[in-house]
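User: Please fill in residues for this 212-position structure.
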């Protein structure tokens, strides 16, 4: 099992400079792809890694980039992964300004008084989540919830309450920036079969990870 991810690591820490058209008037340039371990607290009971795409996304048209339309396919194990984290910076690198990690909860999480926890992402069902609009036939959607920690950590008035974990799948607002540097982070479940991974935007495969 370890050999599987050593193989991915060998090919995924390389840097790139490949510009890909993802939609009309919109492009993505991959700068680096890498594997990370343990940098995201998820609620997954399975062994997972995180695959990170560092890229510059540009829109030459007056149209937002739909972040939830990105997904990662494992064509060998027939799994379609949802983004688990998305970060962006206005400009061409992570030293730009306007850093954003904004996200929304799929599941409402309330404290014992029925109020939202202040430091968690907002729950707003009026914000569209397009992930399900681009399902692939024969693939199972994999949506791993984030673990935001204990209720005691987020609410002083619950220090004496029963401990509970605050968990939810998250999704992301559209980006209205013309050009931005981003990190697309996807979970990968460790399976017996070596994964064959493809980055998709909407229903289009835009990049394949090749193995030697």
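Assistant: Residues filled in for all 212 positions:
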């Amino acid at each position: 099992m370890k050999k599987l991810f050593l193989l991915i690591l060998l090919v995924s820490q390389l840097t790139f400079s490949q510009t890909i058209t993802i939609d009309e008037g919109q492009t993505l340039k991959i700068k680096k792809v890498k594997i990370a371990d343990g940098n995201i607290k998820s609620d997954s009971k399975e062994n997972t890694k995180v695959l990170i795409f560092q890229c510059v996304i540009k829109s030459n048209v007056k149209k937002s980039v739909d972040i939830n339309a990105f997904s990662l396919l494992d064509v060998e194990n027939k799994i379609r992964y949802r983004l688990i984290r998305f970060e962006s910076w206005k400009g061409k690198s992570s030293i730009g300004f306007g850093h954003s990690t904004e996200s929304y909860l799929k599941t409402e999480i309330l404290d014992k008084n029925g109020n939202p926890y202040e430091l968690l992402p907002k729950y707003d069902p009026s914000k569209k989540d397009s992930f399900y609009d681009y399902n692939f036939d024969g693939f199972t959607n994999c949506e791993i919830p984030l673990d935001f920690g204990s209720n005691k950590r987020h609410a002083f008035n619950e220090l004496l309450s029963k401990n509970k974990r605050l968990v939810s799948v998250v999704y992301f607002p559209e980006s209205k920036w013309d050009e931005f540097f981003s990190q697309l982070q996807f979970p990968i479940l460790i399976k017996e079969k070596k994964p064959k991974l493809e980055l998709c935007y909407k229903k289009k495969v835009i990049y394949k990870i090749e193995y030697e």
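For context: Residues 1-14 have pLDDT under 50 and may be disordered.
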